[in-house]
Structure to design on (643 residues):
């Protein structure tokens, strides 16, 4: 046998060692995953007694409260113009509002650039925003005087002062 | 309790319909061996075929009803039972093994038991996790499950709710569950995703076992089940809306791709034509799941055709390729035609292949973003690292036509398609990459792990040969 040729048993052992090391590396990294899973399962167990509605409230926060107000007050064939927050996952709030309220038609607006025509063409106007964004909304709505309040609430959610409201668009103003 | 019974009934139709289609295509043979493998194949097959049926029902302007959806399957079952005396029972009883004692499967080793225990724990985790909380994921609210709500409330699909021109499998599957529940309950309907997770695990295990060994299959299935991104899509790993992907279409697409590749591998091993048809059927349902599934289906057919023309007489190859093409077109064309007639094209139609130079400039950015996500352990552990290491160590397997080469080619073709889309995207490139690369990597992850299992098997076999 050529002295320079690698010994067959050495090659076989090397392959097994490399495979074992790779498996160990994988398992080491997977420990993070298991830790995360166990932590989430504990949270899950703590929240097990909550109803479906309470869990929705926990996950969706103030938007879900507003959704319940809209469901209570707005018929399914009506439309709602909605202003959500500029941050905190703004689009997520918009899409959740639309998701929960179908078949009501939802028009999504931006607080800093409100198209009053969109409000005029809707049956209702709703907003759910941090309090700090309310001044911006108020200045836009000053130009839209004929909105009749139906429901409003202010509270704290995830350490943020939050406010939401539902207003009817009056016939005198709407085209 | 009533809800759970209704939920079980909804899932049962998926399994039943899938099993009927599986049995119908298999004919007198039985290319899908083993109860667990049959169930794992029947589930995605059933989800695909029932949602496709719902689409056709809606095209015929018939409102959705439980009776209307179940009836064709009841009739199909009776016809199959009547015409074929050997129609297999839904869960055929296990026959006692007649193999000689020395050919019976070896006893489970501790390593295999540990690996499968991990898979079991992960399955249990995604099931508990998915069923404990209502829908969380962003795209689920924005697209997939919003459409499910509209289909349930309208009792049909409507062009006005066709957002982005995405295919409808992922939206119509929860619609069917809502129909059975009688109300919208996204928490219970999320059971679809643990179902896909379990189906993927079992399909992967059985395919890997067939191609490598039981020990490697168990180990690599445990690895697949512990990839964080797979868990995020199967059951969720967070209560944060931006990090929970249950309700997305990516895990189902990964399952259809895995199933398509699995049945193609079975076809190569056994040369049974039903396996090839089932492979094409799964690829077709991939196209019915997500737009990305369309090139996957085309590449699946292309590679199958290449194999057939390489190994079979010309006439046989043409017949088999045309059968596969026909099957794919049956699944793809109705949806394409619907989109075309209703004008519900998505953003893909906004891509304009002009000004080539700037697209070349995008390539480094694209490859960097892909590499950052692929080699990031919080997303994929070391799956993509192992793929490259295995490929480098076992590069000889790529010199001749083999299943490894097929799987590599499938991944390379699909990735070339993804890179092309990124190069032509009408959106901001970095935003587009940041919001989608991890999900595209998920589509091909099971194949990456399967080819790594094959590489490991080859290397271990080579080391044993060297030893002896």
């Amino acid at each position: 046998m050529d002295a320079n040729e690698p010994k067959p048993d050495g090659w076989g052992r090397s392959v097994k060692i490399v495979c074992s090391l790779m498996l160990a590396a994988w398992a080491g990294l997977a420990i993070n995953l298991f830790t995360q899973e166990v932590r989430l399962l504990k949270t899950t167990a703590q929240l097990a007694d909550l109803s479906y509605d309470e869990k929705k409230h926990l996950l969706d926060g103030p938007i879900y409260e507003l959704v319940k107000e809209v469901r209570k007050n707005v018929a399914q064939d009506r439309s709602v113009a909605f202003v959500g927050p500029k941050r905190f996952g703004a689009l997520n709030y918009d899409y959740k509002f639309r998701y929960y309220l179908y078949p009501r038609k939802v028009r999504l607006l931006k607080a800093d650039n409100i198209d009053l025509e969109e409000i005029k063409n809707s049956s209702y106007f709703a907003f759910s925003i941090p309090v700090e964004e309310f001044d911006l909304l108020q200045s836009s709505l000053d130009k839209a005087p004929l909105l009749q309040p139906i429901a409003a609430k202010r509270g704290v959610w995830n350490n943020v002062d939050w406010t939401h409201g539902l207003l009817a668009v009056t016939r005198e103003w709407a085209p | 309790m009533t809800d759970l019974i209704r939920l079980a009934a909804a899932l049962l139709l998926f399994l039943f319909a899938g099993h009927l289609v599986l049995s119908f295509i298999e004919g007198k043979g039985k290319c899908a061996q083993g109860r667990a493998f049959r169930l794992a194949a029947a589930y995605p097959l059933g989800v695909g075929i029932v949602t496709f049926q719902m689409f056709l029902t809606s095209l015929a302007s018939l409102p959705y009803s439980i009776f209307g959806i179940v009836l064709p399957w009841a009739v199909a079952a009776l016809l199959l039972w009547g015409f074929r005396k050997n129609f297999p029972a839904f869960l055929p009883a296990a026959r006692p093994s007649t193999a000689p004692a020395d050919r019976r499967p070896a006893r489970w080793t501790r390593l295999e038991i540990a690996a499968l225990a991990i898979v079991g724990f992960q399955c249990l985790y995604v099931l508990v996790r998915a069923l404990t909380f209502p829908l969380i994921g962003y795209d689920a609210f924005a697209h997939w499950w919003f459409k499910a709500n509209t289909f349930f409330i309208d009792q049909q699909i409507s062009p006005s709710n066709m957002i982005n021109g995405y295919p409808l499998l992922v939206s119509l599957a929860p619609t069917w569950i809502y129909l059975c529940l009688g109300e919208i309950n996204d928490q219970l309907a999320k059971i679809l995703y643990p179902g896909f997770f379990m189906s993927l695990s079992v399909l992967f295990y059985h395919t890997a076992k067939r191609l490598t060994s039981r020990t490697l299959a168990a180990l690599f299935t445990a690895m697949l089940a512990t990839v964080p991104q797979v868990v995020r899509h199967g059951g969720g790993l967070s209560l944060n809306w931006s990090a929970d992907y249950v309700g997305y279409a990516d895990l189902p697409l990964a399952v259809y791709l895995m199933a398509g590749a699995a049945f193609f591998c079975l076809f190569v091993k056994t040369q049974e034509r039903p396996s090839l048809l089932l492979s094409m059927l799964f690829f077709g349902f991939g196209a019915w799941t997500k737009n990305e599934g369309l090139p996957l289906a085309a590449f699946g057919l292309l590679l199958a055709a290449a194999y057939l023309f390489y190994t079979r007489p010309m006439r046989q190859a043409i017949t088999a390729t045309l059968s596969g093409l026909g099957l794919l077109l049956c699944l793809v064309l109705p949806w394409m035609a619907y989109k075309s007639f209703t004008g519900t094209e998505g953003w893909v139609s906004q891509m304009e292949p002009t000004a080539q130079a700037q697209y070349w400039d995008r390539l480094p950015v694209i490859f960097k973003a892909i590499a950052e996500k692929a080699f990031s352990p919080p997303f994929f552990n070391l799956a993509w690292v192992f793929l490259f290491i295995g490929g480098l160590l076992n590069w000889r397997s790529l010199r001749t036509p083999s299943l490894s080469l097929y799987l590599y080619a499938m991944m390379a073709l699909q990735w070339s398609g993804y890179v092309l889309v990124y190069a032509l995207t009408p959106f901001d490139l970095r935003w587009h990459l940041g919001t989608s690369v991890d999900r595209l990597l998920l589509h091909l992850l099971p194949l990456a792990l399967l080819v790594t299992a094959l590489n490991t098997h080859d290397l271990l076999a080579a080391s044993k040969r060297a030893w002896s």
